[in-house]
Amino acid sequence: MRRALLIAVLVLTVAPMGVGQKQSARGTHRTSVEEAIRKLDNERIQAQIHADLEFQSITTDDVQVRVYGNTAVETGRSIMNGQDKGQTVPRDTRFTRVWVKQQGRWRLVANHYSSQTTRQ
Description:
Low-confidence stretches: 4-21
Shape: elongated
Helix content: 40-55%
Order of helices and strands: HEEEE
Number of strands: 4
Mean pLDDT: 79
Strand content: over 45%
Distance between the termini: 76 Å
């Protein structure tokens, strides 16, 4: 009887530690994925600015990355300043990007912009 009680106490003491470690590992993994997605997105933006002479700058804010296994959904606001018929035109948009990890690399598989309209 004492042996069974001792085993029960050990199981109840050790089991929560494993759960806490798994949750901590998930949090660390989620943070590293968010950092990787933000880095890749910044590289994509820089390539877009340098490859297309019509964009002078692209900035993002209010960026959130949600991780679902090998998929990450990035949302936020993007302000693009560019040229249209010689006139500088700012474009204020909201975006949703879907990233999927394939063969060890994060790949952008969907990118959607919605124009921000100002209400008066």
